[in-house]
Design goal:
Blueprint lengths: L1 E4 L20 H10 L4 E4 L5 H13 L6 E2 L20 E3 L10 H10 L11 H4 L6 H5 L2
Parallel strand pairs: 1-2, 1-4, 2-3
């Protein structure tokens, strides 16, 4: 599977342009997804130039290197400087609808193949006992 992962707010806390504090288990989870589960992890970030290099150096110092950076393949050269779409099976980003789940939850979702499902909101109808007819009550 090809996994695109953001940096700021996802691997480290969001303190752009500085490198934020590490988010617990982000690096370890991404390394495990690469090494044990054989997924291709692409860094997909708005960082460029020296800020991008700082992020890459940070990850490399923690033992994490990416299959590609802001591109589909390591050897891919952008045709021009404008952003374009990346081909990925899965995106890990703090700006997801609902935010960033815990990295343990992320790993379990990817490893099991079961997507995260938010809890169903309860309504007042869920709290009320259901009215049942006399015939249904006789056979309880």
């Amino acid at each position: 599977m090809i996994i695109a992962c953001d940096f700021d707010g996802t691997i480290v806390t969001h303190e752009y342009p500085k490198i934020g504090k590490p988010i617990p288990f982000a690096i370890q989870t991404l390394k495990k997804l690469q090494e044990e589960d054989h997924h291709q992890v692409i860094l997909w970030t708005v960082r460029e130039g020296q800020l991008l290099q700082d992020a890459l150096d940070y990850c490399k110092s923690k033992g994490l290197e990416f299959y590609a950076v802001n591109s589909n393949y390591p050897e891919e050269q952008p045709e021009h400087e404008t952003a374009r779409k990346l081909v990925a099976d899965l995106w890990i980003d703090d700006r997801n609808l609902g935010g960033l789940p815990d990295w343990g939850v992320i790993y379990q979702m990817i490893h099991s193949g079961h997507p995260w499902e938010p809890a169903k909101p309860m309504s007042i109808e869920d709290e009320r006992p259901k009215k049942r007819g006399l015939f249904a009550r006789l056979f309880d």
